[in-house]
Structures are given as structure tokens and as C-alpha cells.
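Backbone geometry:

***
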Amino acid sequence: MALARVSPTAFSLSLLHSLSRPFSSSSSPVLRPKGFSIAAALSHGDPLEEGAVEEAPRPSSRLPWKPTCLYYTQGKCTMMNDTLHLEKFNHNLLMNLPVNASAADKMKPQKLDYILVLDLEGKVEILEFPVIMIDAQSMEFIDSFHRFVRPTAMSEQRIREYIEGKYGKFGVDRVWHDTAIPFEEVLREFEGWIRDHKLWKKEQGGALNGAAFVTCGNWDLKTKVPEQCKVSKIELPSYLMEWINLKDIYLNFYNRRATGMMTMMRELQMPIVGSHHLGIDDAKNIARIVQHMLADGAVMQITARRHPTTSEVKFLFKNRIR
């Protein structure tokens, strides 16, 4: 097992513990409301931010959805003693990804221990690198990594225009400017994160240990990361050579095609939480889809693998989204 299983603890203790983890939004679970059904755990949310869909009904026991403090996910929140700030923003992503024990009734054995949901943002250069880590055996949220990424091959004026167009509509452009770091630094911090979770050793290289990335499509790891590595003049890391395209798993499990995250959520009757195309919110919503599919009995398997020498990508599923 790559990491010791996490058991529920009191919310007050988990929040205090999470403050000691500067490079993750939270690592300690929250005590879940009793009687919280799988439908509530995996389908309902409280979309409040601009760009989110209308709020769905929720059980009275459900903790209210709150937007995530994005300064906190960068390890830079200085408002932890401000009551109004804590009332407005979420500092523990588990609140958005709860799972009841009864959800595991239909689960199939998984070859993986952990799933890393990755959903990049940025068409010219990568602007956001969010990862949600969940336990593949229990569907529990374990931890998260989130960094805003500063382009290195664009002028400052172009960057300002790019960020205003991308994040201004969400009201998080200021957070981006205050916290974004170059892609090479993001990867360095991410490697420290996966080493801390015993998922990878730099000295050994190779793929992840007992874990795999899940992406909604092949673009993130087939196209965008290699492009960004060339721009940043660094080698493509060994742990980014294989992944699970959730669209292919969805197609083979439910026998129907889904063009993207929104289609999956609509077909699974899962309202979106947060803002679509804000990477950390999309990663949380994709993680919710993964939880839902695991609860339905789906098995997460590697769907694509890149050859380390030729860089050719081999797709492992015959029936797949092209």
C-alpha cells in the first residue's frame, strides 16, 4: 500500500492539522453527517460562484458548499484568523467530496491504490495545475495540490490580457497574479508532494507507485504537458507518461459516449459545483464523477501510455474516444 488509509476525525482537529501542510489544501478528512446518502454525497452541490449552474436541492444534513480559498491552496492564505473569511471560503476540499461508507457496496477491486485527478487550464501556456487525490479503494478524498502557473514565453502585456480573459470573469485574476510561479517550479513542488505521499521517488524515476492520473480526455498529458515542457526547456517527467482517460472508462462502462465533463455530469444527474473552467473546481467535479463511477462498479485502468524513447502514445482500449 502506497499510503496509510485515512480514518475520519473531528472537523476542528482536521482544520488545525491542515494548516501544517503548506503545499496542499487539506490532508485530513472531516467528520461526515450521519445518514448522508450516496446520492447526496456524489450528486448534490451548492453552486454559488459566477458561471455555476442553478443550485440543486440538498439534504438538510449537508454542509453548505463554499468556494475554495485559492490563496489557501497556494499556501499563502493570511486570513485564517478572520471569522468572516472562514465563513465565506472553504479551506478543506473534503467538504466538497464526502463519501458515505454505504457507497462502497457495488465497488469492484481496483488495481490502483490512489487516483490523481488532473485538469489543466490554459491554451497558449499552462495557467493552472490542479490535482485531487482520492483513495481508489474507498473513494475517500486524501489530499490536493494546486498551483497557478506563470507563462515564460509571453510578454507581460499578453499575460495580463490572457489572465483577464481567462480568470477575470471568475474574480480570481488577482489571486493568479499574486501567486503564479513558472511551470518548472510547479513541477518541482509537485514532485515534493508525490514524494511525501510515497507515490514516486526521483532517484528511481519511472511511473507512479500504486497511483495513476485521471484526465477528462487525452489533451492534458498527451498534448499540453509535452508542449509546455518544450516551452519551459525541461524534459517530460517520467511520472507523466501514462494516464486514464475518463471518457474511455465512461464509454466502456456505461456503453455511451460523453464529449466531456459537463455531458457526464448531466447524464449522471450531478449538478456542477463551482465555476466551469476554473481548474480546481473542474478537478473537484471530475473527482466527483470518478467517485460516482466507482460506486457504480467501474474499474479504473490505464488507457494511454507514452513510449519513453519515441514519445509515441499507445492507446490501450479498443473502444475509445478519438
